[in-house]
Every structure is written in C-alpha cells, then in structure tokens.
Design a protein that fits this description.
The chain is α+β, with helices and mostly antiparallel strands. The chain has helices at residues 14-28, 66-72, 91-96, 103-107, 111-116, 129-136, 152-155, 189-209, 233-236, and strands at residues 6-11, 30-33, 39-49, 98-99, 117-119, 125-127, 146-148, 165-174, 177-188, 215-229.
Length: 250
C-alpha cells in the first residue's frame, strides 16, 4: 500500500532546509488529491536546523520576497489586529490569548500562573502561554515548557481556517543554550514554510530567548503533512540548494 514517506532532513540554516525539503518532496512525495480538489505531493517530515538564525534565512528562490516577509512578520507581534485584516485566527493570538479555565484555577498553581492569566475586554479569560514559558524558563531544565494553538470545540468542526501550527516546545539545556521544537498538522512547503519559520523564529527570539539571555542552538520542525501543490510543481522543480560555505559546513 502506498503512503506518504517520512523523511528526516538535517540542515545548517533555514534556506538550506527549505531547499532540501523541496527537492525531496518533488522527488519522493506521494501524489494525493487535496480536499480542495488539486493534487499535491506530500510527505511526513522532521527537519532539524542547527543554526536557525544563520543568514540568509530566506532562500533566494522562495516565492515570497523579503519585502512581503517583513509585512508578514507583523502577524507575529503583540497587538496585531488580525480581525481587521479579515483573518479567522492568528498564531500570535492563540499563543498569548489561549482560552483559560479561569483565574481561580491559576491561583491554585503559582504566582507566575496567576500573572499569565487575564480577562480580555470582551470578558473572556485567557492565558498568555509565551509569557508563561518566558517566566518559567529561569527555573531550570524542564520538559514542560510548551504552548498550544488548537481549540477543539472550534477547530474540529469548522470547514477551514484552522491553525496549521499546533504546538511549540522550548527547553533550556544549560550554558545559556536552548532548543525549540514546533509541530504542524499541515504545511505548504513551497509557498509558506520559509516565511513561517522566519516569523516564528523572530517572535520566539523577542518573546522568550532574549529576555532570558538564551541562544537557540537547535530547532526541530515536525509536520504531519508537508506538501507542495500541483500549481507549484514546475517552479519547485527548479529550486537549487545554496552553495556550501565554510560556515554552513560546520
């Protein structure tokens, strides 16, 4: 029986990882019809990046150019008015305004928990998961520092516009270093992966790493369905790896 292959990619930086992934999906991805109609090439992926902030973060053949990526980065900032822009959800909003059981349950846990839970102007009690991770990291090595986006009572039942990013996991590993794992249910590799990662890494550096003087030394990106849509196959087939430099070969 045919099924999408599972593949591990190990890369120095984001641009290298994107090119490797595109090349693998174009060569080995299983052709699957999407729920929207068009075909896609699809794999299950694990991508390890050793130098996540190494330049260039954006591959020169990535279809979304630098100017548009800078505009996209606004979506990863606090205060971004995603509803005004017509979006059904926003990653940053899910991470800092995740629906909470309430302040009473937070008070039973810790002072940090109480500080991270608040009531919005619309009367909804939410938890700021990024603040929680930032404030808890100094307590030492832990496997419990994570944030989620999925809201089952909504996301299981709407026909579209559910978050692709599902979970972030951050761990301080000593000597001022940290690692981050991110889990995605679905990902448009050719048109979205590279800008997604630039946005996510820019945000996590600002919100979590810099306040704790931490250096991110490893990123692991998991995706249940990493795919390239049929409309992009021709362009994706022309993507080439970046030339190897001494820095990237370390």
């Amino acid at each position: 029986m045919k099924y999408p292959p599972t593949n591990l990619i190990q890369a120095a930086g984001l641009a290298d990882a994107w090119a490797q992934a595109v090349n693998f999906v174009m060569k080995n991805g299983m052709e699957i019809k999407t729920e929207y109609g068009p075909m896609s090439k699809d794999i299950c992926s694990v991508i390890e990046i050793r130098e996540p902030y190494a330049e260039p973060m954006l591959h020169p053949q990535f279809p979304t150019k630098e100017l548009h990526v800078k505009e996209y980065l606004k979506q990863w900032e606090r205060g971004y008015d995603w509803k005004k822009q017509g979006f059904e959800y926003n990653y940053m909003d899910r991470l800092i305004n995740y629906p909470s059981r309430g302040k009473d349950s937070a008070k039973q846990n810790s002072r940090i928990a109480e500080q991270c839970v608040h009531t919005t102007s619309t009367g909804v009690t939410v938890v700021d998961q990024l603040k929680a991770i930032k404030d808890l990291l100094p307590q030492g090595v832990s496997r419990r520092r994570q944030a989620i986006t999925w809201i089952p009572e909504r996301d299981l039942f709407v026909k579209e516009d559910q978050p692709c990013l599902q979970r972030l996991w951050v761990r301080a590993i000593g000597d001022g270093n940290a690692e981050m794992h991110c889990m995605w249910r679905s990902r448009d590799l050719y048109a979205a992966w590279n800008s997604n990662m630039v946005g996510l890494l820019t945000m996590i550096k600002r919100e979590v790493l810099e306040p704790n003087n931490l250096k991110l030394v490893k990123v692991v990106d998991f995706c249940n369905s990493l795919h390239i849509y049929e409309a992009d196959w021709e362009a994706a087939s022309k993507v080439k790896p970046l030339p190897k430099s001494p820095q990237m070969m370390r």
